[in-house]
Amino acid sequence: MKLFEAFIYSFFILSLVHCSHTNDVDELQKINKGERILEMKAFDKALQYFVSIDASSFSDDSKAVLFRNISKSYSQLGQIDSAKIYCEKAVNIADKNSFIYFITKAEFELFNHQASNAIETLVNAEKKHPESEEVAKLFSLIYSGEYGEGYFDLQKAEKYAVHAFRLKNNNSNKEQLGSIYFDAEKYNLATKIFKEMYFQEPNNNFYQFYYGQALFFDGKESKGFQLMKGVADKNDSCKIMFDEIFSN
Q1: In 96-168, at which residue ranges do the beta strands (DSSP E only) sit?
Q2: Which of 37, 59, 86, 228 could form a disulfide with 71 if both were Cys (CB 3.0 to 4.6 A apart)?
Q3: Per-residue pLDDT tens over the stretch 160-207
Q4: Can you give the pTM of this predicted structure?
Q5: Are 144 and 157 within 8 A, CB to CB?
Q6: Range of the domain at 240
């Protein structure tokens, strides 16, 4: 009888573990789907998708990841107040020793113009998670001047962008590295990155524009101009960037 009870108890524990693992996988799959939409810069669609997710059964850290993605979507849409609200929600619910806590805390500090605090938070995050491409990416953004010229350091920005790219070869990290190469007037390196991105996704207006821009400043003015003009005529954001280059 005791053997049977032990079997039932073991089966119950294993069932709980399996159920928990299944839930974790399901949560991750839902979040990853939205992150792929974010990667395509379809920020409205990403926001609609993320807010439609029923997170009532999510673990706290999964909820924090979800809130962070909602925050990122709002931020990209220029709705900073809403972005700050969800970023703070993520910070408050995440385990204080988890990666998601450190990264959202740094982002919340940046939303509040506390770049020095964010750097300190990222230093602590880097100690605990030295192979995190997101930490490297955020460092790169800070040192590229995104959060104030007082922290502008292209050498550090490039170092962290290269590190992020090596850790995770995705389009977001490619684009950041290409932009830093461009800002550092390493136009040939920027051209190589944006050419690869453009040929992988020829219908992406931004990749075409960035490729054309890098070509133009690398001495291939005619081809670069044609590529930029081609998307400036059909995309408002590209038109603004085009006018900034050629208005003078």
Answers
A1: none
A2: 86
A3: 999 999 999 988 899 999 999 999 999 999 999 999 999 999 999 999
A4: 0.80
A5: yes
A6: 186-248
**Region 68-79: what's the mean pLDDT?**
94
Amino acid, single-letter form, for residue 235: N
**Cα–Cα distance for residue pair 23/59, rounded to 1 Å:** 9
Rounded-to-integer distance, Cα 118 and Cα 135, Å: 11
Q: Which residues of 208-231 are buried (b: 16+ CB within 10 A; e: fewer)?
A: bbbbbbbbbbbebeeebbebbeeb
> Cα separation of 60 and 104, whole Å?
14
d(CA 225, CA 241): 12
pLDDT at 5: 59
DSSP 8-state assignment for residue 58: S
Q: How many CA atoms lie within 13 A of 248 on its CB side?
A: 3
Residues ≥6 apart with Cβ < 8 Å to 241 = 209, 213, 228, 232
What is the DSSP secondary structure assignment for residue 136, as one 8-state letter? H
The counts of H helices and E strands in the chain are 13, 0
Domain final residue, candidates 130, 157, 184: 184
Residue that is last in its domain, among 34, 68, 94? 94
How distant, in Å, are the alpha carbons of 36, 110, 165 from that of 93? 24, 19, 29
Query: Rounded to whole angstroms, how far apart are CA atoms 124 and 215?
Result: 39
CATH of the domain at 169: 1.25.40.10
Cβ-contact 211, 233 below 8 angstroms: no
Alpha-carbon span 15 to 18, nearest angstrom: 5
The pair of three-digit structure tokens given for residue 119, joined into one six-digit string: 């750097």
